[in-house]
Amino acid sequence: MRIVIMGAPGSGKGTQAALIVKELDLDHISTGDLLRAAVAEGSKLGLKAKQVMDRGELVSDDIVLGLLEQRLRSGGDAGFILDGFPRNIAQAKALDTLLERLGQPVEEALQIDVDEEQVVQRIAKRAALEGRSDDTEETVRNRLKVYADQTAPVVDYYAHKGILSRVLGDGSIEEVFQRIRGVLQIQGDS
Questions:
Q1: Three-class SS of residue 167?
Q2: Residues 23, 91, 61, 66: is their CA dihedral positive or negative?
């Protein structure tokens, strides 16, 4: 199965992605992890990414797609869950082009929906537990606005393609995962 997982910051998509990966034995692909690994390895794309990141700029879609292509070509056929990409319509279209070329099109786009106030509370709790000073209410609300402006239209893009499923992200981790299991039609006990 090839899945794109989406949701606002603090929606629990990373946590749920890890559970899905374990349940379905998929490759968990995080674009942030790919970038950090490429920079650490000093690969050609990693060096390009590092130059951009050192200037405080966003890494281009071409670099991210190149890293994704390398990862997908080196991975097995078990499928994947893509976490953190695409973040806008242009990226979604470019991803589709890449995946079609590789014969690995997205089969499921999974959107985790959580109330904005709950997201703010979740991230504030995480910030307190982890000592993260970058997760202030102001920065969280700004990230939610950026998500609504740029990433939320990707949800409509996948809905139009007929592969979108939405899951309510309220409740315990296990409750949300059970909803996801139902959507993905995963059988058995977790």
A1: strand
A2: positive
Residue 23: which pLDDT band, with cuts at 50, 70 and 90? very high
Element holding 164 (H helix, E strand): strand 164-168
- For the annotated catalytic residues, the residue numbers are 13, 87, 126, 132, 143
Those residues with Cβ within 8 angstroms of residue 60's Cβ, 6 or more apart along the chain or in another chain: 52
CA neighbor of 111 nearest in space, from 32, 29, 13, 185: 13
Per-residue confidence (pLDDT) for residue 88, from 0 to 100? 92
Enter the pTM of the model. 0.85
Q: pLDDT tens digit string along 57-81?
A: 778 899 999 999 999 988 767 799 9
For residues 76 and 127, give the distance between their C-alpha atoms in angstroms, rounded to a whole number.
36
Q: Residue ranges per domain, the chain?
A: 2-26+78-184, 30-77
pLDDT digits (tens, 9 = 90+) for 111-144: 999 998 888 888 888 878 887 777 778 888 888 8
CATH, domain range 2-26+78-184: 3.40.50.300
DSSP assignment letter at 162: T
How far is residue 186's CA from residue 153's CA, in Å, rounded to a whole number?
A: 28
Q: For every residue of 14-45, which 3-state class applies, written as one string? A: HHHHHHHHHHHCCEEEEHHHHHHHHHHHCCHH
